[in-house]
């Protein structure tokens, strides 16, 4: 198998983007209790690219291979850097928690002020 040319890769860029959109839609729109696997979503996107005449079967297969490789590369990167990612995620969660707590306390404080006013009126 020969390596794809730069021109061929550029021609397949729109197909790649459309197949990625289809994969995302397929995974996001799953309504049953068992969502489709990534492979099922990829196969669907590949079939649709051929059916809609966006790519030949060979081109759609080539793009599917690119997508698989990109997903594998991303997964490997996350696994190699999982501690950094975990640390970043925890930091982000802490920021969200702080904002939620501030919001809660501001609402609770206003509620307490209103209750105090209400109690003064009743007395």
What does this structure look like?
The longest helix is centred in the last third of the chain and has 41 residues, at 82-122. This protein starts with 5 loop residues before the first helix and ends with a helix. The model has no long low-confidence stretch (mean pLDDT 78). By secondary structure, the protein is an all-alpha fold. The chain is built from four helices and no strands. It folds into two domains: 1-80, no CATH class; 82-123. It has helices at residues 6-28, 38-51, 57-80, 82-122. Helix 2 packs antiparallel against helix 3 (57-80). It is 83% helix and 0% strand.
Query: What distance separates the N and C termini?
Result: 89 Å
One letter per element, helices H and strands E, the order comes to HHHH
Strand content: under 5%
Radius of gyration: 25 Å
Q: Structural class, from helix and strand content?
A: mainly alpha
Low-confidence stretches: none
- Shape type: elongated
The average pLDDT is 78
Biggest beta sheet attributes:
none
Question: How many distinct helices?
Answer: 4
Domain count: the total is 2
Overall number of strands:
0
Helix content: over 70%
What's this model, at a glance?
With 123 residues, this protein is mainly alpha-helical. Helices cover 83% and strands 0% of the residues.
Features:
123 residues, mainly alpha, 4 helices
List the helices and strands and how they pair.
Layout: H1 6-28, H2 38-51, H3 57-80, H4 82-122
Helix pairs in contact: 1-2, 1-3, 2-3
């Amino acid at each position: 198998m020969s390596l794809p040319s730069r021109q061929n890769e550029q021609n397949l860029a729109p197909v790649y983007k459309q197949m990625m959109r289809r994969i995302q839609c397929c995974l996001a729109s799953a309504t049953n209790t068992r969502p489709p696997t990534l492979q099922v979503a990829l196969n669907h996107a590949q079939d649709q690219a051929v059916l809609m005449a966006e790519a030949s079967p060979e081109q759609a297969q080539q793009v599917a291979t690119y997508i698989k490789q990109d997903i594998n590369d991303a997964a490997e990167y996350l696994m190699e850097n999982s501690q950094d990612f975990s640390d970043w995620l925890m930091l982000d969660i802490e920021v969200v928690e702080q904002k939620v707590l501030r919001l809660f306390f501001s609402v609770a404080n206003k509620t307490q002020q209103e209750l105090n006013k209400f109690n003064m009126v009743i007395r």
